[in-house]
Write the structure tokens for this entry.
Amino acid sequence: MRAVDIIQKKRDRIELTSEEMSFFLNEYLANRIPDYQVSSFLMAVYFNGMSKQELKTFTELMMNSGEVIKFDGIKKFLIDKHSTGGVGDKTTIALAGLFAAFDIGTAKLSGRGLGHTGGTIDKFEAIPGFVFPETRDELVNMVNKVGTGIMGYSDTIVPLDKKLYSLRDVTATVSSIPLIASSIMSKKLAVYADGIILDVKVGSGAFMKNLDTARELAKTMIDIGDSFDRKVVTLLTDMDQPLGFAVGNSNEIIEAIETLKGRGPKDFTELVETIVAVALQIKGDVKTLE
């Protein structure tokens, strides 16, 4: 099997077999296929997309390129909420306490900020002296004790995604829907949760600028979840303006706390309430969002 033949098939819109995809990505991870050939492959995907089977194989290979975590010691129903990122998006902070109140656990790996927005890790670190769990055992103990455990991604989780993303970033292929969807879902699937809620931001301050591309991304991620028998719910939410009034890591922590006291901005409060309702629906505690 040769890398150039696989690139040519992708260029000519011929579906790749699982064996071809496995060969190509595993050889790249082992540094036996050079960046320039993988860059060519990514550009072919950008223009030609992927079939459902190709996308499942691609996501599975990324997911299994590193450690896959299952929290055997956690006794709670686990929900992993992910946002595609937006200005003033402090949702995870408010959700943590609300999920815990409904006996829903949050055991998730979160990232730092990309581009112009802070990540969940950055926001929590605005609290003086705040320390994240550093091991899986610490995370499990934290979830069992207070309902919430969040820690940063380690280099052992989906290393293939990190390697591919650095190439996408310099080859103008970041905005490919299949590549975005597989990148997000490989990380979500590598860390077990009973349900996954994906908040896809849409608008001028988000990565997805219009509803059509946001819907396509949401549907692609749901399809990936279905192919792995995982319950995935997506929400399309507005990012034509910042979420709430507070922007900046410390400010957003304060606004999330104010929201839990019933003094939050209307748009942020509505989003948080909706996500909690969706989580309760996935868990089976309620039948309808109303």
Remarks:
- The first helix runs from residue 3 to 11.
- Residues 3-48 form a domain with the Transferase, Pyrimidine Nucleoside Phosphorylase; Chain A, domain 3 fold (CATH 1.20.970.10).
